[in-house]
Specification:
Elements: E1 3-11, E2 20-25, H1 33-43, E3 48-52, E4 61-66, E5 71-72, H2 76-87, E6 100-105, E7 108-117, E8 120-127, E9 133-137, H3 140-146, E10 162-165, E11 170-174, H4 178-183, H5 188-197, E12 207-211, E13 219-226, E14 231-234, H6 238-250, E15 257-265, E16 273-282, E17 285-304
Parallel strand pairs: 2-3, 4-6, 11-12, 13-15
Antiparallel strand pairs: 1-2, 1-17, 3-4, 4-5, 6-7, 7-8, 8-17, 9-10, 10-11, 12-13, 13-14, 15-16, 16-17
Helix pairs in contact: 3-5
InterPro entries: Phenazine_PhzF-like
Pfam family, one: PhzC-PhzF
Protein name: PhzF family phenazine biosynthesis protein
Length: 305
């Protein structure tokens, strides 16, 4: 019987059994697409990553990312967690890892810088592989129905609900306050209807809700629902956080800006996560979006095939 080693990590946290769970297959050579999907479904985490030799030897690895139902082109916490796991290895496909890694993914090349403390890898910072994409606008009624909220719960003063992406698309909407955010519940039938109205080739309709205050505009509380991917709620969504940070900075009147946001997610699930987003804007356009966070190892084992 063949076995495949795996490592699970908790991402965007310094505490074990908090943050967002990720399973990493550090050497996925020999696995078929069907086996990768079956493994991702078996874990039931929001994502599982499969690491393969790079197509270009100048890069570190090729990384494939699967949800319980499909493969996605990019995601934030899988990249941070995968970098954390690989950075602790003696070698990656015959090469000794350094602090800078490069992952080949469907969305493009992902640049990674490992984070260290006292010589030990503690996490990673990645750069989103694609420029900010905005649109289409999403009806308020659609968002409200998906979240089991009334339309009055949404705050449209800063922007209307919209789909945004820096590698993976999400519908994003602001709600009035933390209390309202905590009351949100995904309505699967409404998500089905939204998916029909706003279809995607690479993924299904996912919703990222957030709230913030005037006093602390860059301290954000968020939740993400993707029930059509069998992810009722995600404790930390780096790709959505990066897209939101990029979008909010793009709305600033300043032509140039360097902003750091901290997004807290997963608190309503008992898996609090802290995601740091860095956005650089120059000459009126967002130039770079980075996602950073800490990780801790949770489990090691093997999968029988």
């Amino acid at each position: 019987m063949n076995t495949v080693p795996f490592v699970t990590v908790d991402v965007f946290t310094t505490e074990r059994f908090a943050g967002n769970q990720l399973a990493v297959i550090p050497d996925a050579r020999g696995l078929s697409d069907t086996e990768m999907q079956a493994i991702a479904t078996e874990f039931g985490y929001s994502e599982v990553t499969f690491v393969l030799p790079p197509t270009d030897p100048a890069n570190t690895a090729r990384v494939r990312i699967f949800t319980p139902t499909t493969e996605v082109p990019f995601a934030g916490h899988p990249n941070v967690g995968t970098a954390f796991v690989l950075g602790q290895q003696q070698e990656i496909f015959g090469k000794k890892p350094d602090s800078n890694l490069r992952f080949e993914e469907k969305a493009g090349l992902v640049e990674v810088v490992l984070r260290h403390q006292d010589g030990i890898v503690t996490g990673a910072r990645i750069v989103a592989p694609q420029a900010l994409a905005i649109g289409p606008a999403i009806e308020v009624a659609t968002i409200a129905a998906c979240a089991s909220l009334g339309p009055e719960a949404l705050n449209g003063q800063n922007h209307s609900p919209v789909r945004i992406s820096v590698g993976l698309p999400f519908a994003v909407a602001e709600v009035n306050d933390v209390e309202t955010l905590s009351k949100a519940r995904p309505n699967v039938s409404a998500f089905d209807e939204a998916n029909a109205c706003y279809p995607l080739e690479e993924d299904s309709f996912s919703l990222f809700l957030y709230t913030r205050t005037r006093e602390r505009p860059w301290q954000i509380r968020a939740r993400m629902f993707a029930p059509l991917d069998n992810v009722i709620e995600d404790p930390a969504t780096g790709s959505a956080s990066a897209a939101l940070g990029a979008y909010l900075v793009s709305l600033l009147p300043d032509a140039d800006a360097d902003v750091e946001l901290v997004i807290e997610q997963g608190a309503d699930m008992g898996r609090r996560s802290l995601i740091t987003i860095g956005v650089s804007k120059k000459d009126g356009a967002v130039r770079e979006v980075a996602i950073a966070g800490d990780c801790v190892t949770a489990m090691r084992g093997s999968i029988e095939l």
